[in-house]
Amino acid sequence: MNQTFAALQLGPAKRAAARLAAGAQTGSGSCRTQSYATEAKKKNPYSHTIKLPQTEFPLRADAARREKQFRHRCTDALYEWQLKNNRGPQFILHDGPPYANGDLHIGHFMNKVLKDIINRYQVMQGKRVVYIPGFDGHGLPIEQKALETLKGRDRDSLDPMEIRKLARNFALKAVARQTESFKEYAVMGDWAHPYMTLDPSYEANQLEIFKAMVEQGYIYRQNKPVYWSPSSRTALAEAELEYNEKHVSTSVYVKMQLTDESVARIGGAGKVSALVWTTTPWTLPANRAIAVHPDLEYVLIQVAENSESGSAGYQLLVGKDRLEAVSAMLPEGSTVAEVCMLNGKQLEGLSYSSAVSGKECPILLANYVTSDSGTGLVHSAPGHGQEDYDFGLANGIEIYAPVDDNGRFTSAAGVALAGMEVLGEGTRAVVAMLRDAGVLLHVQEFTHSYPYDWRTKKPIIQRATPQWFANVGSLKASASESLRDVKIFPEFGRRRLESFVAARSEWCISRQRVWGVPIPVFYNKSSGEPLLTAESISHVIGIIRE
Prior knowledge:
This protein is α+β, with helices and mostly antiparallel strands and 546 residues long. Helices cover 36% and strands 22% of the residues. Helix 1 packs antiparallel against helix 2 and helix 15 runs antiparallel to helix 16.
């Protein structure tokens, strides 16, 4: 035995030699090898003491194959059975449809499985569950995905009918793939009869509701600022925005030079400018007014810069509460002397030359002006913001926005700016123009929260264009009243929903795309005047139903 164990520590050739030597010494080398084999085949003396159940279950689950054998019975068959056999009240779960713009992801899984858990619980309570799944086959996400399949083709040259056909086919294929995936999740429902927003009957029903809204005066068209996505080339509703907390913008302090008459009126001398602050320099070509608060105090100061600058000095009109902050922005060595104090009402009606356009514009009163930041004087571009729009509308100011669908300056902004992206080179060009004109007091970049298109993940702008809106302000009271009869889990979600309803006064419903339910409006070729009546809508509905 000792020789055998020692041989295990040797190489193959030496081990073989050791075995032969061991066999020679005992005289039974081959017999000993046979005895090992015989011992290995001996029955375990304890095997009869182990009591195991007798079963036909396979050793392995083989779930990939066997799960399919049970799926139908647990989903489609169960759904039909409970409708026929349960005697309790009907339970309907309304399905918010997913976009038919691609394959499913984990969010779809969580959504549908949670709904399925609710439905199966209701089945166990004896209720007859009605669950009709849906698919949203319209909208920009589908149109964009469909256009992405056109590799190497000029998308802008496509006829709208081509795009609609392409988008419809893409959506139907996505619906088929998503349906199969949802079935693999074992979600119980009427998958043979889903509702789809692209079905003509569904579109006609939508337009019937739209017609009722038109008849009750809820639909109107107006040229006003909307959230505009240059990357999608369409207007967006507020719900289609997300906010980037790390967006970088450029802020500027700009001198707007007062007219000689206005300078004399406030007792100024030489070059006198109203100092404004803005975080959107690209809106300065659309400047049409400066807003001041009627009850704020303003100060006219004399600024003398250091001798090395060669400046003859100038006067600035700023908010009294912002004087210290503004003084810190002046060139090193500058001195500031107070000329006189004025209140906001004394500034009403003054005129100035707009820094970029050179247009003579007024200084007007507005209660939304504060002295918390900036200069206490607010640059107003009614074509590029809701607050400015309301201010302009109240004062009869032009709603002007020299920016096109691609987010670029039009020729109306000036030859030097035409064609530039307002959020990129356009902003840099405006800042350069201000610096060259000697009206740029201070410029700095800062990081802040800024709205982005939730689909393209790119920044949006506010831009006045003729759009269609739904006036939901008059519906707030009845909508809030309806919520009182709705059980919401958890209860704190009610406050969020009620505040959401209360904050809405209008909804931009028009989109500058071709794939979706159209607003059934006709335009006069010569005048551009829109035609939207109950009769014209009924005509369109009739065609869709045919």
